[in-house]
């Protein structure tokens, strides 16, 4: 090999070297960018999972607290339904005792017990559904027991008599009022 060929080889090597380094640096930059993009995508995906899980947990908390409140408000529904016939019996007894003048002291005692029972039940959320004779019949709010011929034309389709009171526990009707309507 001559000196000139060796010098050309060295120059070629020197010329090739910076180009090789540039290509390698560019490859490293591309690799770093793809690694960074991959990490950004993974971070975004994990963030999305976290936000979905958090939202799901918040919905769960809201739903369970709503169910708990609903349970507390209607937990005594069975007990109230069981006490309603007793309340009706008290009202019938008071009506019957009022006719008997000899049982005035008994009437006062029964009235006191009845008022105490009603007051206690009202404190627990029980309220009577207000229905009066002459009100318009509504199948969503009343239970029709029977229909009888209306004594006058203005009572057709209206309530003629209330057989049994209706009651609500909170906002929920636990017993619809039983009524007689005019035909």
Overall shape: it is elongated
Number of DSSP helical runs: 3
- CA-CA gap between termini: 128 Å
Computed structural class: alpha+beta
Q: List SSEs in N-to-C order.
A: HHHEEEEEE
For the record, the count of structural domains works out to: 3
Secondary structure tally: strands? 6
The largest β sheet comes out as: 3 strands, antiparallel
The strands making up the biggest β-sheet line up spatially as 1-4-5
- Rounded mean pLDDT score: 83
- Gyration radius, in Å: 43 Å
What ranges have pLDDT less than 50 throughout 5 or more consecutive residues? none
Beta-strand portion reads 15-25%
Share in helix = 55-70%
Features of this protein?
63% helix, GrpE_head, GrpE, 183 residues, cytoplasm, 6 strands
Explain what the structure shows.
This is Protein GrpE. InterPro entries: GrpE, GrpE_CC, GrpE_head. Belongs to the GrpE family. This protein is α+β, with helices and mostly antiparallel strands and 183 residues long. The protein has 3 domains: 75 residues; 49 residues; 57 residues, Roll (Nucleotide Exchange Factor Grpe, Chain A, domain 2), CATH 2.30.22. The chain is built from 3 helices and 6 strands, in the order H-H-H-E-E-E-E-E-E. The strands form 2 sheets. A 3-stranded antiparallel β-sheet has the order 1-4-5. Helix 2 packs antiparallel against helix 3. The longest helix has 72 residues.
């Amino acid at each position: 090999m001559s000196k000139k060929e060796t010098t050309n080889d060295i120059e070629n090597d020197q010329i090739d070297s910076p180009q090789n380094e540039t290509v390698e640096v560019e490859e490293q930059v591309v690799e770093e960018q793809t690694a960074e993009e991959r990490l950004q995508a993974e971070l975004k995906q994990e963030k999305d999972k976290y936000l979905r899980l958090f939202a799901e947990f918040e919905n769960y908390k809201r739903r369970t607290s709503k169910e708990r409140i609903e349970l507390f408000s209607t937990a005594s529904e069975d007990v109230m339904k069981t006490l309603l016939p007793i309340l009706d019996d008290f009202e019938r007894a008071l009506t019957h005792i009022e006719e008997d003048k000899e049982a005035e002291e008994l009437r006062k005692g029964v009235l006191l017990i009845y008022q105490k029972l009603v007051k206690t039940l009202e404190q627990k959320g029980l309220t009577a559904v207000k229905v009066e004779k002459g009100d318009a019949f509504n199948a969503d709010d009343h239970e029709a027991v029977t229909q009888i011929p209306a004594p006058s034309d203005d009572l057709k389709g209206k309530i003629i008599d209330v057989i049994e009171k209706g009651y609500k526990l909170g906002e929920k009707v636990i017993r619809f009022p039983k009524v007689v309507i005019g035909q």
